[in-house]
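Standup, Tuesday
Yesterday: got the pipeline producing structure tokens again.
Today: sanity-check two examples.
Blockers: none.

Example 1:
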Amino acid sequence: MNWYDKYLYNFTIAIKEFKFCSKKSKMMKLAYSSRNHAIEFNDVDKKDGYVCKVQLTDCKNGVILTASFISGIYAFNLFKEVWNYPSNEKKRAIKTYNRCINVIEDLKGDYEDEDMAGPTLQGLAREALRYVDIDRKKPTNNRSLEAAKYLDGEGDYANNLYGNRLPVTTININNSGVVNIDNK
């Protein structure tokens, strides 16, 4: 007999009786209701896709609405917006939830129709969701960023990338069939 068998042989097991009651015990509710919606964005390069998750959660402290743009492969958070509502404004939160879904569905159509590059989705999402119930957005600790929420941004991703240096290509075709391409 080894030391472990001796230990088990000398070890006494105490048995305690548990009583189960048939009454339902009160459980603590963390969320009273929740709504989720996921929208998938397909990338042009087929190397990375993005998912937007819109979630509405009603809890005892109020109603929270989040819209998160997440990379499908690398799982990093591309962009996130948060709206906070008091408990008595649930209808307004549901209305904003439906509006967010409609805005993001329109953004998806524009993004996929124009074959945009993946990283441009962040700027497009920020501009699309900028004025959606702006007074209920979660405030930041930076005053300049808080003031910038009310300023107009640039919705065209090409101007964001190139600024005023956007390349212009002019194609001239003569009657003789000569093609001249000018890049400025």
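Example 2:
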Amino acid sequence: MHTTRKLSLLIVLAIGSAAAMAGEIDGSTVLSSGSVNTSAGFLSSANQNIGVAEQNGKIKNSTVIVNGATNTAAGFLSSATQSVGRATGNGEIKNSVVVGTGLSNTAAGFLSSATQEVGFAKGNGKVENSLVQATGAVNTAAGFLSSANQQIGGAQGNGKLKNSTVIATGSVNTAGGFLSSANQSVGVAK
């Protein structure tokens, strides 16, 4: 009897664990204002995720509104990643609204990397029947061999952008330093 209870508990935990891996935001509202995330020092990493669904990630019938979010990593080999309304791993954004205003993502230092994604679906990504709007989104990497990557309202990995509106007003993507690179994608299916 005791073994049966333990086995039952293990099965329940395994099922719960598998279900937790599939990220889904459905029929929900995510509001964030003035969020700040900072990491400083050698090999620093700052990751800010707001309204993000991962591993078979789906954002459906939902609204994600973010205002004034700041994410910063400073130091040698620093990495800053800011994600607003992003779905990954067969990612899907459907019948939803993603709005980001005054977003700031910065990585500063030798070999720094800054990645900012707003309303973006990855890994067989689909953005369908949705509105993605980014106003004043700033992504900056500064330093020798730095890289800046900004993606707004798009889909990647057999990506599909369908029946959707993407608005990016005053969005800035900058990499500064010797051998730096900057890549900006707005309303792109890759």
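Quick observation on example 2: The longest strand covers residues 113-121. The chain has one domain: 22-186.
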